[in-house]
Amino acid sequence: MTATPPTSPPPDFARASVHHFRSAVLATGARWQISADHLAGLAAECAIKAILISFLGSELKPNGMPHHPEMKFPHPTRRQRNWDGQHGHLPALWEQLTAVAHRRNDTAAGLLFSQLLWENPFADWDVGDRYCDGTMLTKEHVDRHLKAAYDLIAAHEQARILGTGTLV
Amino acid sequence: MTTPPPPSVRFDAAWKQALAHAGQAAQRFGMNVVVTRDLLGRASLLVDDRANPLAADAPDVVSARDGFAAATHPFTGLEPLVLGSLLFAPDLFFASGDRTEVSASHGNVGSVHALERTVIGADWTSAPLPARTPFDGDWDRRDRRVAMYGFKGGVGRSTATAMLARYLADRGRCVLVVDLDLESPGVSNLLESPSGIPRHGIVDHLVEAAVGHADGLELVARGTALPVRGESNGEVWFAPAGGTPRAGERSDYLAKLNRIYSDLAPLTPGDGPRPFATRLEQAISACEDQVAELSRRPDVVLLDCRAGMHDIAAVTLTHLSGLALLFTVDNPSTWEGYRMLFEQWRQRQDHVGDLVERLRVVAAMFNSAGDVNRLLALQERAYNLFADTLYEPDSTYISAPDAEDAPHTPIPILFGNDLIGLDPLRSSAWPELPMVEAVYQTFTTTVERLLPPPHPEPS
């Protein structure tokens, strides 16, 4: 995600996740695999940020960047001293979600959500892959990323209506 | 002049209002509705308008939303009214298997379902395990399992479990007793001296299986503290809640207990989820399989279940047993407890018919042996409760309050003062005392009659 200028309205990650997901589905139908995979990852990123902000204590900085005020994550590309609470791209964002979710000591582990956290389905996804030539991208990759994005968006929606007990 | 605070309702009244408004919405829109209640008790109204989308700002939608919010305040969901056409994953709500039906659709009126999210207790009303696990011929594992449950503790349930195990073994059956009173284990002590307790227990299976590591556990042992009479080939086996570690081994029972109740994700991605009910079923099956391996298949499995409204009891009664014995003493708190429980079950109309046939009341008649009037009074109260809650209006039980063999008809245990203070470990022959046998005779013989026949002898 690119930092939003302070004058813009704050990002609506929940809505954006649905938009990206639906665009990804359209791209899949048109066999635009690279776009589909890229959009599926963005949809998942937005859903994770929506979950973190709505339910798990993350906040928006004045510049629009989401971060967790009590957590420090290793920056994926910088040295350890640059640890901060900022939420960026997948796949590192997934580890951040897992770390934040596991801090919570709630006996009602949500089934949908705990299944999601089991394994990072975006371990092989990179936001820079939109520049790839597509030769390594299989339908299985795209389907897995779409499914994970769907589950995340649904988990956010379910928690909004049934409460945070559906999350960890 | 100060502004008067908005009208507000308490928890129960808010839910009643939510259901009433849900009924009105089902009628007004002619669509199915789901009314949800979150962890804090806050309700939202979900209208399934997918076939015929409504406008979120249409006057009747706005009026329904405002009316619902005003009637349920402060137990109103973050979004009081949600249109299904605007949901991302509507089937998570409108097709959820966790819904309970409040009213069916009829004519132009949609159905009303409730969907609740609670901290614990979902198993009281959740659907039974879909797949049974055949064990032999016509009888599956569940048919041979008997849940021993009392809403209130301290009514002699564990002692009765030991007596029943002993009696059935005397009659040649292979009996397995599983201690599911995990927060307060004890039935194992009635069957075995501590030195004979196996190395592992039910809690070990639950934590080891969670990571796919349950093979090789030693879960069962043959009871010796209650030797069966010489002429019978019966056996009593038991599976304790927690095992006895070998010398030098450490066993942190609490650390395990605190981790067992959650529903788990699949062990292998792509497999089905592992709810607590399924995991407990697997633990009990593992105990049965070990008895079969060490000796023969158990004819009867007694599940000594903890008291109160707890997930273990919920799963054992509704999912895991073919016969559920409800230990009852004739006092108001016991009846009130069973009424709460039965009213929960009544919400699952699709399962309650099957469930009621598996229930039997057991009367723990403290200090009243021989007083037939007290037993009749208990029977009348049990009948009234079943008739109010679980019996269908056209059930044959409704017209037979005095039936000798109905779910509400109490099976008496004529408990007397003489039994108090008996220490089964110091006097292993105590079950053979004539006084003790008399106390349990009606109970043991009646339960035996309700059980499937023993496995045939191997040819």
UniProtKB/TrEMBL annotation, chain A:
Report which superkingdom the organism of origin falls in.
Bacteria
The protein in question is named: Uncharacterized protein
From TrEMBL, chain B:
A Pfam family that this protein carries is: CbiA
Q: Where are the transmembrane segments?
A: none
Task: List keywords of the entry alphabetically.
Answer: Kinase, Transferase
InterPro entries documented for this protein: CobQ/CobB/MinD/ParA_Nub-bd_dom, DNA_Partitioning_ATPase, P-loop_NTPase
Q: Where is the CobQ/CobB/MinD/ParA nucleotide binding domain?
A: 147-188
Gene3D superfamilies in the record, alphabetically? P-loop containing nucleotide triphosphate hydrolases (3.40.50.300)
Q: Which PANTHER family match?
A: P-LOOP CONTAINING NUCLEOSIDE TRIPHOSPHATE HYDROLASE, PARA FAMILY PROTEIN CT_582
Q: What protein is this chain from?
A: Tyrosine-protein kinase family protein
Give the species.
Streptomyces xanthii
What are the top taxonomic ranks of the organism? Answer: Bacteria, Bacillati, Actinomycetota, Actinomycetes, Kitasatosporales
